[in-house]
Design goal:
228 residues, alpha/beta, 2 domains, oxidoreductase activity, acting on NAD(P)H, oxygen as acceptor, SDR_fam
Amino acid sequence: MSVSIVTGASRGIGLEITRSLLANNSAVVTISRSVSDELRGLQSLQLDIIQGDVADRDISKLAVDTAIAKHGKLDCVILNHGILSPVGRIADLALPHLRDSRGKILMVSSGAATGAYAAWGAYNASKAAMNTLAKTLAGEEKGVVSLAIRPGVVDTGMQEDIRRVGKTHMPPEMHSKFVELHSQGKLVKPQDTARVYANLAISSVNENLSNLSGQFLSWDGEELKDYR
């Protein structure tokens, strides 16, 4: 049985990653600032829910300690939030255990990391920094696979917010693009992209996966076809 920590697990991609992991008989420790009814509804002996901000070192430490105390190991950390400082903090806390398990750090990145989207300066920079962290960790931690993965334009609450209020601060053509993706049914289903992260989390590290470490990949790219 694999053991993973998932941050930002209360809704959207993080919630679906958690759901997919549990469906594959994995143990999961989640961190989220709020606990949604959907997350609470995933009741399982293999699920531990920690409410708090991952920026709080004590919360991140509690998640790592819970995984080790209850399951004796940690195989994967899935970082589904966009602020770099806590990303690095929980990675540092988890790394000693990931070295032992030859585990993985999976970062939910974004096309914004390279797209330089107007009006999204802080978000763009945060995701770009996340990609750089994945590359740095891959160089420093040869026994741990670190990947930054673009999930696509996913049908989540973030997209709802963009359609509802994005027109006030986004360039018209950019806002129209997201509205059209929704109206044309082209948004990625959260469960589809989540399945890739979950399958990576539970898979054994092989030579092909090790060779991908440090890269920025797309969930639907050729490199990850075996995990879809």
